[in-house]
């Protein structure tokens, strides 16, 4: 394309040069023709007046003979004294191009003639219009001819050039199609541009295509490596560095479900039972540290099994694949995990750490079916004791144990806890900030198995809610708390008791609770019932009915985990709670988060306007406690203030 542009410029300048030479030639010819015409006209005029006198030359005669306007454009006759006798001025303008040339070469000039007696002097200018027209016609013809000669080859060569480009493009496209066809069924770029096959398409292009093939092969590895790196980053859990659920699914499908070779092994699911409680009471940073510690334990224990793979499926669940591990080895894995979790539990003063469900697998087992079975094993493990594990054996699978097996076992465990009243009560004080602030100690329940082993609290309460047994659990906790307060003679101390939203919205529970509190009216006035903000939002009307009853018997209400939802303060003004407890997520890193400080201060101001005291939970450091005090909150709760202890 660049060469073609150079050709156009060359032709254009050539045309200009030849056109200029033509103009010079015709200008010279025009000057010669005009000079010849002037000489002829001068000879004619001189011959005409040679032997005449002024008396013989009349203006009418001269005008008729010489100044008819075709030969002369200007004709002036003067006498001996120089006086003008006749002045005929009929200028004829030249064509544009001729006029431009004449103005530069000054070809048409005035001519003079005198008779023999010297009493007649004639000055004239010839009419060169015909010569000018011929000059312009010749120039225009020259321009046209030279332009045709200059630009016709350009248009012709442009057509050839386009046709050549089209042929080259078609050749390249055909060659690329051949190459793609030979490689389209392969994941790797193996085929070369065959020299013999390329001969028909264009032998000159073969070396370039072969270099292109080698270049693509060299880049293939880089592209695959980059794609694999991106995939690893996308499939990696940020906190633990383990593969996430997507990587787990891909690994299972490629190495177990769809593999041709027969394989077997065990799949273990580990669920962190305390994550939700730690996030709520100690903050999300502590929750992340807890997850990281559990991950390290799992990786350490599973690292002794050849080919083991560990994944983090979601916030609280891990999956471990133990290839070629029989049930006996899987049971040893569960026992080792339990021992390590128990040790970590004692060091961190937790009620539990994690439970483990284990199932065997074999080639071709659908992942969804296997996850359903391992979830049942997890439910069984959670219903045993803290950090327990359960192996869903092959015999259970052969006997077609249903999906509700875990739920049924949980129902049995919860029923036994309720009937046997196997609940242990702990308390955690809320420290008042001001002297006139009323605070209380929150009662926290722990549940035991028949062997007096602690059950994972979060899993127990979640399953009770799922099986519609939360109301019975709330009754158990309230009854146990009232009995303990009476037997320990703690009627002068204020206590907080958690109530689930399902219980607060149950008419039967509200009636039962009112009668139970009226039975111990002196204790009821010392109780504060805590309900989550989210739970109250589920049924505003039922929530108001519950809160009105609580106030009627002299007890108080705390809205806990406040700030997580989008509840307006009109809602709280209508329900009239006594306290709100800010969610622990607002306390975490409060000394560095100016936005959280501003938000909490705004909440405090608005709450105080409607007569509601504000507590902060999840206070873990001295800095957090100091900031909470400067924000004018009414009380603080957390592990820095006091850890849960027996009543």
TrEMBL record:
It comes from the Bacteria. InterPro entries: Cyclic-di-GMP_PDE-like, EAL_dom, EAL_sf, GGDEF_dom, Nucleotide_cyclase, Rev_trsase/Diguanyl_cyclase. Pfam families: EAL, GGDEF. Keywords: Membrane, Transmembrane, Transmembrane helix. This is Diguanylate phosphodiesterase. It comes from Pseudoalteromonas holothuriae. Residues 407-647 form the EAL domain. The chain crosses the membrane at residues 138-156. Gene3D superfamilies: 3.30.70.270, EAL domain. GO terms for molecular function: cyclic-guanylate-specific phosphodiesterase activity. The keyword Transmembrane helix applies. PANTHER family: CYCLIC DI-GMP PHOSPHODIESTERASE PDED-RELATED, CYCLIC DI-GMP PHOSPHODIESTERASE PDEF. Residues 263-394 form the GGDEF domain.
């Amino acid at each position: 394309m660049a060469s073609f542009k150079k050709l156009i410029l060359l032709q254009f300048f050539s045309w200009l040069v030849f056109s200029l030479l033509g103009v010079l030639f015709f200008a010279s010819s025009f000057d010669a023709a005009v000079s010849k015409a002037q000489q002829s006209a001068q000879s004619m005029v001189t011959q005409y007046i040679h032997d005449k006198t002024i008396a013989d030359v009349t203006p009418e005669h001269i005008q008729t003979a010489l100044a008819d306007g075709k030969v002369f454009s200007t004709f002036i006759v003067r006498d001996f004294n120089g006086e003008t006798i006749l002045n005929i001025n009929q200028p004829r303008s030249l064509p544009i191009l001729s006029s431009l040339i004449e103005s530069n070469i000054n070809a048409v000039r005035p001519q003079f003639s005198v008779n023999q007696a010297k009493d007649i002097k004639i000055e004239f200018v010839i009419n060169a219009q015909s010569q000018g027209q011929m000059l312009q016609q010749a120039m225009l013809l020259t321009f046209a001819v030279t332009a045709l000669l200059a630009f016709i080859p350009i248009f012709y060569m442009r057509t050839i050039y386009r046709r050549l480009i089209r042929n080259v493009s078609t050749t390249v496209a055909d060659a690329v199609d051949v190459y793609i066809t030979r490689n389209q069924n392969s994941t790797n770029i193996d085929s070369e541009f065959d020299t013999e096959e390329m001969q028909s398409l264009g032998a000159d292009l073969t070396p370039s295509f072969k270099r292109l093939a080698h270049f693509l092969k060299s880049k293939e590895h880089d592209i695959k490596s980059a794609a694999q790196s991106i995939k690893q980053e996308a499939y990696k859990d940020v906190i633990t560095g383990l593969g996430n659920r997507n990587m787990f699914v891909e690994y299972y499908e490629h190495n177990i479900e769809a593999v041709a070779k027969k394989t077997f092994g065990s799949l273990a699911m580990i669920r962190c039972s305390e994550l939700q409680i730690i996030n709520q009471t100690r903050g999300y940073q502590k929750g992340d540290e807890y997850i990281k510690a559990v991950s390290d334990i799992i990786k350490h224990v599973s690292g002794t099994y050849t080919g083991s793979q560990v994944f983090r499926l979601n916030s609280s669940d891990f999956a471990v694949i133990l290839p070629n591990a029989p049930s006996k080895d899987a049971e040893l894995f569960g026992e080792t995990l339990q021992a390590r979790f128990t040790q970590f539990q004692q060091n961190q003063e937790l009620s539990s750490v994690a439970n483990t469900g284990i199932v065997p697998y074999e080639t071709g087992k659908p992942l969804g079916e296997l996850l359903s079975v391992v979830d049942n094993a997890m439910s069984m493990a959670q219903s045993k004791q803290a950090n327990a594990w359960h192996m869903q054996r092959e015999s259970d699978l052969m006997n077609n144990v249903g999906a509700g097996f875990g739920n049924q076992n949980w129902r049995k465990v919860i029923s036994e806890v309720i009937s046997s009243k196997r609940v242990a009560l702990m308390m955690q004080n809320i420290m008042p900030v001001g002297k006139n602030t009323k605070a209380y100690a929150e009662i926290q329940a722990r549940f035991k198995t028949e062997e007096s082993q602690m059950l994972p609290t979060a899993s127990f309460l979640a399953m009770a809610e799922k099986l519609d047994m939360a109301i019975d659990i709330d009754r158990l906790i309230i009854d146990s708390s009232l009995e303990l307060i009476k037997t320990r003679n703690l009627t002068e101390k204020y206590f907080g008791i958690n109530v689930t939203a399902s219980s607060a919205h149950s008419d039967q529970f509200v009636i039962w609770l009112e009668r139970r509190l009226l039975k111990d009216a002196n204790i009821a006035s010392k109780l504060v019932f805590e309900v989550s903000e989210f739970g109250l939002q589920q049924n505003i009307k039922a929530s108001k009915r519950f809160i009105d009853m609580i106030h009627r018997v002299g007890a108080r209400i705390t809205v806990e985990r406040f700030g997580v939802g989008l509840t307006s303060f009109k809602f709280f003004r209508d329900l009239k709670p006594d306290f709100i407890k800010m969610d622990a997520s607002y306390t975490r890193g409060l000394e560095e988060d100016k936005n959280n400080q501003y938000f909490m201060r705004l909440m405090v101001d608005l709450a105080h306007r409607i007569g509601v005291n504000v507590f902060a939970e999840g206070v873990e450091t001295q800095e957090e406690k100091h900031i909470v005090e400067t924000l004018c909150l009414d009380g603080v709760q957390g592990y820095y203030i006091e850890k849960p202890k027996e009543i």
